[in-house]
């Protein structure tokens, strides 16, 4: 089984205010175009990108009849590098496995603006098995 990952990753330097899923996604998408939004690109490449394929492969091996439809993940990344408020839509066996696994990781903490406790991480993942 060959796993092909098509994804979009965005990290944003705006505070994580919204608590509902759609609000968090909207705020994060609005921040994408900001100058601050690009500050975390290197951090994403070093900390998040390497985990995606590995984590998805582990999940595909761990669940019965893996659902290979795409999903959207939203999380807050704390100064400590811990992920909190991890949520996925739609909720499938793969998206739940991925969220649970990613939530258990402690990454190198990102650089945050003064007074900023966390920033939103948005992963838009399309998963296709060939």
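Q: What amino acid sequence fits the structure above?
A:
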């Amino acid at each position: 089984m060959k796993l092909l990952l098509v994804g979009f990753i965005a990290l944003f330097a705006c505070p994580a205010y919204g608590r509902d899923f759609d609000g968090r996604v909207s705020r994060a998408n609005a921040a994408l175009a900001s100058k601050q939004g690009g500050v975390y690109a290197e951090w994403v490449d070093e900390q998040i990108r390497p985990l995606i394929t590995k984590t998805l492969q582990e999940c595909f091996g761990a669940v019965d009849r893996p659902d290979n439809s795409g999903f959207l993940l939203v999380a807050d990344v704390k100064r400590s590098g811990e992920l909190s408020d991890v949520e996925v839509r739609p909720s499938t066996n793969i998206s739940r496995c991925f969220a649970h696994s990613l939530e258990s990781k402690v990454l190198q903490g990102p650089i945050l603006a003064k007074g900023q406790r966390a920033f939103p991480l948005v992963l838009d993942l399309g998963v296709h098995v060939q």
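Q: And what stands out in the fold?
A: Helices lie at 21-32, 41-62, 93-103.
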